[in-house]
Structure formats: C-alpha cells, structure tokens
Specification:
Oligomer: single chain
Helix content: over 70%
Radius of gyration: 22 Å
CATH architecture of the largest domain: Orthogonal Bundle
Number of domains: 2
C-alpha cells in the first residue's frame, strides 16, 4: 500500500508539468488544444533519441522542451494566421505529430534501460527522488507564476478573459495566443521527456489520452483547492495531478478494476470531478432559497400579526 502511494506521488509530480501546460490553454486561454497528445510524445521521443545517441540528458531534455514550443507555435499559427478553428488546428497538429514523432524515433519504441538519464542516480531512492521532483516542479511553477505577472503574461491572461477588449487596447491577441499555446506544449513535452527517462522508454502511444489526464488533474485540483489567484490555480494543477494519481492507485486496488481500465477510471474521475461541485452548488442554492422563503414567510406573518 505504501509503495503504491509513493509511486503515485512520483507519477503525480512527473505529470504535474503536463497539467500546468493544460491549465494554460484550458483555463487561461480557453483554447481546446489537442496538440498535447502529440507534443507529449514528441518530448519523450526527442529526449530518448538524443540520449541514446550520446547527448547529455539535460541537453536532451531542453531540446524536448524547445520542440514542444515549436509544435505549440505551429498550432497557434494555424489558428491565428491560417484562421483554422482552434479545436481543428489542434487535431491537425496532433495527427501531423504522429508521423513526425515516428520520423524522430525511427521505430515505435526506444529503450533507455542501462542508459544514463537525469534520474539515473536517484530513481531507486524515493526519499530523494520525490523531493528533487518536487523542487523541479515548484521551480517551473514559480517561473510560470512570475511570467504570468509580467506585461506579456497579463496580456495573455486578458486575451483568454476578453480578447475583444484587449485588442481595443492595442494588444496583438494573435501573438499572445501563439505564446500561450507554445508555452503550454513546451511544458507538456518537458513532462513527456521526464516520464520517458523515469520509465526507461519512449513509445509512440505514450501520449494517447494525455489531454484527458491533464484536464482531470486541473479539474480535480480546482474542485479541491480552488483557483482564486494565479499562484493558487497553478498549485491546484500540481496538487490535482498528485491527487488524481493517488485516486487511480486506490481504484486499481479494487478487485473490479484491472490495469487495462485506465481510460475508464480516468473518465469516471473526470465525471465525478465535474458533477460533484455542480451538485454541491445546486444543493447550496436550494438551501439558501429555502432559507430565504422561510424568512419571507416569517416576515409576512409578523406583519399580519401587527395588523
């Protein structure tokens, strides 16, 4: 039990960067970006192929991040300059990335077993591995928080809130959208690179369903921890990723579920995360309405008695 929980926390931290990336497009830009299913694999593919060809792991990881930025920028260009619907632009880029990733890897799977990676020295010691991952994720989170408070970051946030208003103030919303989608996919690719190094392989199918995992983490985090400020929202995405992995690990301990039920479990978790807050809000409104009705009846009775 303890081992599975530790593993869940490790995976949650590794996927947290992906969750932050999805938060940028899903919450800040309100952009339905499906590129992440492809850019996640791109990150793992670039890191794996470079490491196996003798490049330093940190250089390979940085290149994976840059390739993710490029993939996101292309999606942004298709949407803003090509005037293609955002959802369709993401789908087209995701499809294109499948062939690109296969070109990068040269084969469906690349093994990193017995190869030096960023985690080679610490991956076997969870009590060191988890703090190192936590520091890395926290550093990226704080850098993103700082960026979102700069002029460009504020313009990015305003673009998602009200693009027409920010255009009237002279800001080029096309540029802010490209920056946001690019940064999102860069973080997703970075997560893919780290996952590939931790798991010991990169695979063509590793990115399937990534968008759902990211949305699950963001929604669960917001439902539990709230999202009133940028700092709180990005922290909620990180913690939501960890909570999601813990829930998934607990679900697998139920005899009814098998490891092959990952997608179904994910769907159930997302449905619960979406429905429960709505039900709670509806019940709260009904209680307030009932209380208000009782107050009005009492007030009406008091006036009748006085008359």
């Amino acid at each position: 039990m303890l081992g599975s929980m530790i593993g869940a926390v490790e995976l949650g931290l590794l996927y947290a960067l992906m969750a932050i990336g999805v938060y940028i497009t899903f919450r800040i830009l309100d952009f339905p970006d499906l590129t992440v299913d492809g850019s996640y694999t791109t990150g793992g593919a670039v890191a794996a192929i470079m490491i196996t060809h003798g490049y330093e792991p940190w250089i390979s990881t940085l290149c994976a991040f840059l390739c993710g930025l490029a993939a996101g920028a292309l999606t942004g260009l298709l949407h803003t300059k090509g005037k293609i619907n955002g959802l369709l632009a993401g789908i087209l880029m995701m499809i294109a990335l499948y062939s690109i990733n296969l070109r990068i890897m040269g084969k469906p799977n690349i093994s990193l077993v017995n190869t030096d990676t960023l985690f080679s020295a610490i991956s076997d010691n969870s009590w060191v591995f988890i703090p190192v991952l936590a520091v890395l994720v926290l550093l990226v989170k704080l850098l993103l928080d700082g960026f979102l408070h700069t002029d460009v970051g504020l313009a990015l946030r305003a673009t998602g809130d009200n693009a027409r208003m920010i255009r009237s103030l002279g800001t080029n919303t096309d540029t802010t959208k490209i920056i946001g989608v690019s940064l999102s996919n860069g973080l997703v690719a970075l997560s893919g690179a780290l996952i590939a190094q931790e798991s010991g392989f990169a695979d063509m199918s590793m990115g399937v369903g990534t968008i759902v995992l990211g949305l699950a983490s963001v929604i669960i985090g917001e439902a539990i921890f709230g999202f009133r400020t940028v700092f709180q929202a990005t922290l909620a995405a990180v913690l939501g990723s960890i909570v999601y992995r813990i829930i998934y690990a607990l679900a697998l301990r139920v005899e009814f579920f098998d490891a092959s039920d990952l997608k179904m479990i994910t769907a159930l978790i997302v449905v619960a995360a979406l429905v429960i807050p709505t039900v709670r809000r509806s019940m709260k409104q009904k209680v307030l309405a009932r209380k208000r009705t009782q107050e009005l009846l009492v007030a009406a009775g008091s006036k009748g008695g006085q008359a």
